[in-house]
Recover the amino acids of this structure.
């Protein structure tokens, strides 16, 4: 009798969860059509506010006006203007999309991940810059250029579960003098409860205790006998493969005379700088930091730091004969990408080895980009590394050319293909291009801020499929509601069935370029036609309201059936004398608890 009663309870439980899973799936489909989006979309941030597109750019599904999201600032002459700098944006994949909106404004904008609606603007430290999300702690960390309004900290911390929750932080990266604290931050699940940070002009790599939210250690990257021109460290990349941190050194340089490192001081002029030569401080006319990148004193390059031994285990100073610019890591940490300050002609790819050993050079790639007037400059500030299915691609676009390079990392010779964005020579100012892969798709977006354009390419077919004009693609971000797919997958797995995949999937068809069926011509889409496309999507949604109603009714019906099934089983049990005879017995057996239930009841990471 005890076995029979337990079996009935198990049947009721499975029935309830089956109907719940079906209801979740149907409600998710309905939500997708009613304005809540779970699959991957591309978010564009800029002077036009926030725009959300389908992965191929065919449809603009939502627009948030700039007056709602940008911040008013006061100019030197007392006038007011709205700033839409968007220094950084990040998605937590669960509830929100986060944006550091305006320089000088201590606020973070937070948007709902499924609807794009603005949740609110939340106070943070001064001039917020880089944002990083820690998936295990479910926290967003903000690296700022000034102390917080509420605490003496250069880094702020938000709970991704409850952004309004107060999380005190006392992460002081210098003594809060006139020096700015702009720098870089590295957080990763593989690093555990530790983060690392740099500050421009400071020689230290800071180790941060994420639980205590304070600096626990600082490592002098200059070493016991530093280079006299060593100024500090700035750019960083982290490899989860070997656990190493790759840190870019900054240097100083003298200028303005025949005996100086460089004859010209450039448009920023010179100032007094202090150099330590043979233990003696010497004051010279010169510059430090980014103004000296690529110059004759820029010979330190990237230092490879091993956190396990707390030592620098190697240097990567040059890409070919040119100084290295900044390090980037592939998602799996297998490769470190080094761009040279040579107009984009050369890229070196390092292979991450074992922990404690210097990474080795795996390949040197020569790229066919225009180098006119940029022969000694870096033209790459971003790239996309795509690892999905059979794809293992490295995608980069030069800021001095209308061309995108696609490097096949699986090919022995690292074969390179090109996609032409425009059939014309590049004559504008060289300005960084952002490259963003829309997760789970074949689409990559490339920003063209100098031309107020954005481009969409298909990396599978190696074709340009769409060009947007009159847009400010300040920041591009691929956003997927992973929490929704994880929940649906968990239901399916628990029932012993195949649930919906947690990876992003997008069903989209590249539209025809005929004049009768597409709002774009010659691969170009203007702002006006983009608005037309959005209006058309709204019309289509209204036209399919009957389908939406049917899905909503189906979800409601499934829920009602689940409730009815439980009530019917309960009444049947009350009428069953066998079950009545055992009503004093425990409702659970003495078998071990289901591991999946233990996971579902786990306490979320502490944010205290």
């Amino acid at each position: 009798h005890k076995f029979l009663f337990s079996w009935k309870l198990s049947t009721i439980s499975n029935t309830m969860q089956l109907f719940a899973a079906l209801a979740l799936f149907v409600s998710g489909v309905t939500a997708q059509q009613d304005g809540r989006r779970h699959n991957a979309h591309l978010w564009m941030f800029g002077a036009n506010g926030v725009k959300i597109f389908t992965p191929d750019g065919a449809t603009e599904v939502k627009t948030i006006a700039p007056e709602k999201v940008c911040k008013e600032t006061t100019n030197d002459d007392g006038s007011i203007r709205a700033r839409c700098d968007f220094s950084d944006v990040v998605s937590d994949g669960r509830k929100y999309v986060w944006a550091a909106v305006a320089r000088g404004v201590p606020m973070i904008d937070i948007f709902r991940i499924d609807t794009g609606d603005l949740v609110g603007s939340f106070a943070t430290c001064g001039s917020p810059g880089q944002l990083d999300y820690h998936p295990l702690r479910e926290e967003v960390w903000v690296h700022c250029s000034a102390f917080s309004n509420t605490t003496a900290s250069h880094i702020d911390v938000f709970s991704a579960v409850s952004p309004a929750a107060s999380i005190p932080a006392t992460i002081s990266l210098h003594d809060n003098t006139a020096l700015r604290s702009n720098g870089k931050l590295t957080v990763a699940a593989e690093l555990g409860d530790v983060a690392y940070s740099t500050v421009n002009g400071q020689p230290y790599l800071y180790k941060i205790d994420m639980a205590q939210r304070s600096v626990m250690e600082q490592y002098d990257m200059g070493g016991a006998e530093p280079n006299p021109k060593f100024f500090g460290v700035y750019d960083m990349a982290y490899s989860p493969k070997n656990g190493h941190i790759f840190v870019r050194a900054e240097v100083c340089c003298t200028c303005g005379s025949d005996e100086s490192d460089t004859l010209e001081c450039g448009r920023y002029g010179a100032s007094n700088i202090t150099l330590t030569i043979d233990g003696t401080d010497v004051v010279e006319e010169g510059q430090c930091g980014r103004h000296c990148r690529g110059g004759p004193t820029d010979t330190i390059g990237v230092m490879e730091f091993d956190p396990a031994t707390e030592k620098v285990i190697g240097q990567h100073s040059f890409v070919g004969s040119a100084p290295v610019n900044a390090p980037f890591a592939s998602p799996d940490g297998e490769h470190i990408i080094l761009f040279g300050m040579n107009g984009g002609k050369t890229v070196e790819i390092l292979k991450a080895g074992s922990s404690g050993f210097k990474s080795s050079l795996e390949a040197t790639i020569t790229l066919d980009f225009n180098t006119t007037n940029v022969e000694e400059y870096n033209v790459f500030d971003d790239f996309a590394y795509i690892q999905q299915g059979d794809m293992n691609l490295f995608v980069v676009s030069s800021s001095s050319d209308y061309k995108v390079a696609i490097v096949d990392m699986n090919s022995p010779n690292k074969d390179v293909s090109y996609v032409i964005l425009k059939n014309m020579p590049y004559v504008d100012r060289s300005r960084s291009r952002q490259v963003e892969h829309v997760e789970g798709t074949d689409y990559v977006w490339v920003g063209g801020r100098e031309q107020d354009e954005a481009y969409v390419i298909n990396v599978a077919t190696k074709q340009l499929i769409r060009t947007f004009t009159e847009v400010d693609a300040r920041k591009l971000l691929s956003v997927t509601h992973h929490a929704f797919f994880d929940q649906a997958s968990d239901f399916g797995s628990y029932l012993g069935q195949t649930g919906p995949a947690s990876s992003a999937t997008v069903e989209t068809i590249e539209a025809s370029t005929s004049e009768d069926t597409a709002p774009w011509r010659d691969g170009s889409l203007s702002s006006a036609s983009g608005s037309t496309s959005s209006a058309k999507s709204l019309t289509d949604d209204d036209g399919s309201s009957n389908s939406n109603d049917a899905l909503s009714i189906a979800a409601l019906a499934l829920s009602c059936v689940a409730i009815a099934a439980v009530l019917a089983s309960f009444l049947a049990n009350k009428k069953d004398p066998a079950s009545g005879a055992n009503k004093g017995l425990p409702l659970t057996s003495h078998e071990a608890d289901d591991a999946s239930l233990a996971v579902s009841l786990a306490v979320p990471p502490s944010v205290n």
Observations:
- Residues 1-9, 27-31, 499-548, 576-608 have pLDDT under 50 and may be disordered.
